[in-house]
Specification:
Oligomer: single chain
Number of strands: 10
CATH superfamily of the largest domain: Bordetella uptake gene, domain 1
CATH class of the largest domain: Alpha Beta
Shape: globular
Distance between the termini: 47 Å
Length: 313
């Protein structure tokens, strides 16, 4: 009992002194995609409440594994955080990772969104049905630019192939930005992109949107039909990003980080910034709520990866 009381007292004192220096927020994708955009938004908002700088640190590569491993092995003091998707995805996808789900403490979900299926402006497809019909008649001839194995666009395309009954040739890039550049250059013909990656190109007329990866249209991505409305029943895929700390981070520190994130994400202006990029701010009610959601979702993500047939050394 005495040891427990000492631990609780020390944790409380640590939390009261926290934060005393800048915090590093690591993201496993390069500038230009949704992960980078959300990282900078939440970092700015948390900094206002915490009173210290939150420094976005892009560490792209291996589908986010490099960033995740950095944070998993960092000191459990709240000064190194991660903005990432569900860890079950990469753990199922890669034969070996330098971390496990248990290596992280859940803080809060940040935002949720759908991907957008786009084609280059010069492509002949003007509807989802036209693209599906061509893909069925020409297996493997459509080159799909993807943001890397295990990314939201990759899994969105895997589910699309399964539901639509088509076979694409997917080319993996180190993030949504490089994938979009490939599409613009004409090296690939289609891609599933997160809204921050593609909406500017859509508005400029450089990409044509065919559908979003949800069943129905979304107010966050106006003017683009849902998959069912575009002619593909049964297709529904959404993605999210969330904040993590290394396992063992004192609970009072995790709660303080959650408080700062939730406060920032609840602001009307923050919601508008995120909505302008086609996503919804979805902070978790508590770290415990986010942890419970992670446990509940893990089997679904593992099954989706298994269905993809992908396995990376």
């Amino acid at each position: 009992m005495r040891v427990l009381l000492v631990w609780l007292f020390c944790g409380s004192v640590f939390a009261q002194a926290f934060p005393a220096k800048p915090i590093r927020l690591v993201v496993g994708y390069p500038p230009g995609g949704s992960g980078d955009f959300l990282t900078r938004i939440v970092a700015d908002e948390m900094a206002k409440d915490l009173g210290v700088a939150l420094i976005a640190d892009n560490r792209p590569g291996a589908g986010g594994n490099i960033a995740a491993e950095i944070v998993a092995k960092a000191p459990a003091d709240g000064y190194t955080l991660l903005n990432s998707q569900h860890h079950a995805i990469n753990i199922a996808l890669y034969r070996s990772t330098g971390y496990q789900e248990k290596d992280f403490a859940a803080i809060s979900r940040v935002a949720t969104g759908a991907t957008v299926l786009v084609v280059g402006s010069g492509q002949p497809f003007n509807s989802l049905r036209e693209l599906i019909d061509y893909a069925r008649q020409n297996p493997g001839k459509l080159f799909n630019a993807s943001a890397g194995f295990g990314s939201a666009p990759h899994l969105a395309s895997v589910l699309f192939e399964s539901v639509a009954g088509v076979k694409l040739t997917s080319v993996q890039f180190k993030g949504g930005g490089p994938a979009a550049q490939s599409l613009l250059a004409g090296d690939t013909q289609m891609m599933f992109g997160t809204s921050p990656t593609v909406m500017g190109f859509i508005r400029a007329g450089r990409m044509k949107p065919l559908a979003i990866s949800m069943r129905h249209a979304s107010a966050a991505i106006p003017g683009i039909p849902g998959a069912e409305e575009a002619g593909l029943a049964g297709y529904h895929y959404i993605f999210w990003f969330g904040l993590y700390a290394p396992a063992g981070t004192p609970a009072p520190v995790v709660r303080r980080l959650h408080e700062a994130a939730a406060k920032g994400l609840a602001k009307h202006e923050t919601k508008e910034k995120i909505a302008a990029q086609g996503m919804d701010a979805t902070p978790s009610a508590s770290p415990e709520t986010f942890e419970a959601e992670l446990r509940a979702e893990a089997p679904m993500w593992r099954e989706l990866v298994r269905e993809s047939g992908a396995k990376i050394e």
